[in-house]
């Protein structure tokens, strides 16, 4: 579920959200709420499910490297 204690929190720095293409621990219904609260967040998708870093470690590492190089 989406944390209820976030309130009106905003981010003053760039943020990235990595979402698996398969099953996620964050329900799809919460995606729009997250997007509206954190408008400067860049979204990325990657192969796998909620354990994608263990399922696809190389792809996950490469994605994080690309994000950090920006």
List its traits.
alpha+beta, 17% strand, 39% helix, 70 residues, two-stranded parallel sheet
Description:
This protein is of the alpha+beta class and about 70 residues long. About 40% of the residues lie in helices and about 15% in strands. It has three helices and two strands; from the N terminus they run βαβαα. It has a two-stranded parallel ribbon with strand order 1-2. The protein is flat and about 35 Å long. The termini are far apart. The model has no long low-confidence stretch (mean pLDDT about 85).
Q: Topology as H/E string?
A: EHEHH
- Side by side, the strands of the main sheet go 1-2
Q: What's the number of extended β-strand segments?
A: 2
| Rg, Å, rounded | 13 Å
Amount of helix: 25-40%
Assembly level: single chain
How would a crystallographer describe the biggest sheet?
2 strands, parallel
What portion of the residues fall into strands of 2 or more residues? 15-25%
What is the SS-derived class?
alpha+beta
Low-confidence stretches: none
Q: What gap, in angstroms, lies between the N and C termini?
A: 30 Å
């Amino acid at each position: 579920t989406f944390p209820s204690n976030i309130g009106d929190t905003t981010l003053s720095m760039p943020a990235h959200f990595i979402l698996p293409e398969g099953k996620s621990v964050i329900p799809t219904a919460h995606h729009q709420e997250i997007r509206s609260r954190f408008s400067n967040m860049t979204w990325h998708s990657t192969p796998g499910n909620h354990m994608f870093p263990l399922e696809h470690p190389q792809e996950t590492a490469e994605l994080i490297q690309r994000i950090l190089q920006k």
